[in-house]
Amino acid sequence: MSGLTVNNLGKSFGSNRVLEGISFEVAEGEFAILLGPSGCGKSTVLRLIAGLERQDTGEIFIGNQEITELTPRERDIAMVFQSYALYPHMNVFENMAFSLKMKKQPWQEIEEKVRNAAELLGIEELLRRKPKELSGGQRQRVALGRAIVRNPKIFLFDEPLSNLDAKLRSAMRIELAKLHKQLKTTMIYVTHDQIEAMTLGEKIIVMEHGTIQQVGTPEDIYQRPANVFVAGFIGSPQINLIKGRITEKNNEVFFETDGMSLTLNNNRLRTYIGQEITLGIRPEAITLGEGPIAGEIEL
Questions:
Q1: Overall pTM > 0.90
Q2: Phi, psi at residue 285, to the nearest 5°?
Q3: C-beta atoms surrounding 281 within 10 Å
């Protein structure tokens, strides 16, 4: 079993509490996304899983094995960084083979693993080049290849596409999705980009200020946000959030705010009659009916 369980992780840097009560599960073979704005603590969670930082509280399990006290080398996890982290004096083959050499694996086995990974990523012709001779997209493929040859239980990705231009990022998202389908390995991916999250993730873990706001499928997160933060963070264009009050007239439920009254065909909202609420309306849910419309368009 190579699923991941994170239980009640907490972390402080000095007097700054950066994580509090982080708990979630990722099933074996699942592609999970840690999503949130910059500074919310998602990369710190990834570093705790990898063993690059030490948590103050909580436990981490891979399958039934607790790895909380294990060194990074003992955790059987491969991490792909934003900066690629390639050795500049080594060629592509040597970069991909480095961890296998450190484990003193047989040369024939190393060569087979490197060439298989290179073929999978379409970089066979780059094996003798140095990193400085490669484009950003090629360097990222090499970094992926270096992780693949290790055949880890879990892949960790720390915003691996953020240094690429928009066109290449889109292409690499497709490649990552294909890679996951082929390898069927548990993957955990950190990003602040909701497009990456919604297109790649089978499970999305939304974070803010060092806490988890919601865990669910992309559809859950988009259609049934747990709170106003999740509703406002997910979606482009952003959701319309309007504060108002639920009222009842002639046995009908209304949402009322300054200058606007909407009939709501939802009996569940009767429990909120007389209360202030925030109404969320996705832009694609708005349609224009017949009759004159007064308003102002802002660009």
A1: no
A2: -85, -5
A3: 12
Cα(first)–Cα(last) distance of the chain, in Å?
Answer: 52
Q: What is the pLDDT of residues 213-231, one digit of tens each?
A: 999 999 999 999 999 999 9
pLDDT > 70 fraction of the chain, expressed in percent and rounded: 99
Quick one: which H or E segment has residue 285? none
Cα angle, residue 133 at apex, residues 131 and 134 outer, rounded to 5°: 70
- Is the Cα dihedral 216, 222, 226, 229 positive or negative? positive
Residue closest to 92 by CA, chosen among 156, 149, 176: 149
Pairing label, strands 65-66, 31-35: unpaired
pLDDT of residue 62: 96
Structure tokens at 63: 């399958």
* Angular region, 6: left φ>0, alpha ψ -120 to 50, beta rest: beta
Strand ranges in 118-200 using DSSP code E only, listed in sequence order: 154-158, 186-191
Length of the chain: 299
- Amino acid identity of residue 290, one-letter, is E
